[in-house]
Amino acid sequence: MVNETPESRVLDLGCGTGRLALGMAAVGHAVTGVDPARASLAAARAKPGADRVTWIEGTSPILPSSAFDIAVMTSHVAQFFVDDTEWQRALADLRRSLVPGGRLVFDTRDPRAREWEQWNPIDSRFRVTLPDTREVEAWTEVTAVQDGRVSFTMHYRFSDREQLQSTATLRFRTDDEVRISLDGEGFSIEQMYGGWNRLPVGSGDGEFLVVAVRR
Ligand SMILES: C[S@@+](CC[C@H](N)C(=O)[O-])C[C@H]1O[C@@H](n2cnc3c(N)ncnc32)[C@H](O)[C@@H]1O
């Protein structure tokens, strides 16, 4: 979608460790990656090609005005705006940061797919080997499901016996909630798909891929 316009001015909000931001910059787009997680940005800045991206630590209030042709939020960043007032605020900031006619593209999981039911110590368990040869076993455990919000703990057990945990809460919005929130902040929905393969909602990957346009 970004490549539909060569040399786009792109915002990657919630860019994390920059895998998408770096890919877009490598093909000639002017990319700004914004994320509140300092450690993730440090990892992004250390990657090859990182100097082609403008990295900003922060979240939506920090965005410049009328600066981007397209804004993306990938890997369910939208669900990290748990509080609905916070989500509306982020949408208003995103709208402000886009040029008129600019597009906002993001994914968010479809609550009907109930993906959190697989976030248990058995189904979610996986292992990875780190560059320093240590192995990590990781799994997720849901701690609460209430009012469209799912709280969970991620567990990491390293082969040298170190153990870490991180907790988070994600907001699962219905397609109606997504539509109403976008409309309320001056976006028109161009398309809503059932995921990045652009299948219809309900028959895709258990998520929505939303393409909205700044009115
Ligand atoms: C699952 S990661 C996705 C990272 C990246 N977009 C990707 O596709 O690899 C979610 C990211 O959202 C970021 N995030 C959490 N709260 C945020 C907020 N209020 N504003 C912007 N980003 C946020 C996290 O720090 C994290 O980097």
What would a concise description of this structure say?
The chain is α/β, with parallel strands linked by helices and 215 residues long. It has helices at 19-26, 38-45, 84-97, 175-184, and strands at residues 9-13, 30-35, 54-57, 68-73, 98-109, 126-129, 135-146, 149-158, 163-171, 187-193, 207-214.
Largest sheet, spatial ordering of strands: 3-2-1-4-5-11-10
Radius of gyration, taken over Cα atoms and rounded to an integer in Å? 18 Å
Number of strands: 11
Low-confidence stretches: none
Number of helices: 4
Give the topology string: H per helix, E per strand. Answer: EHEHEEHEEEEEHEE
Beta-strand residue percentage: 35-45%
| Assembly level | single chain
Rounded mean pLDDT score = 97
What does the overall shape look like?
globular
Q: Could you describe the largest sheet, including whether it forms a barrel?
A: 7 strands, mixed
Which small-molecule ligands are present, each listed once?
Answer: S-adenosylmethionine
Distance separating the two termini: 19 Å
Please bin the fraction of helical residues: 10-25%
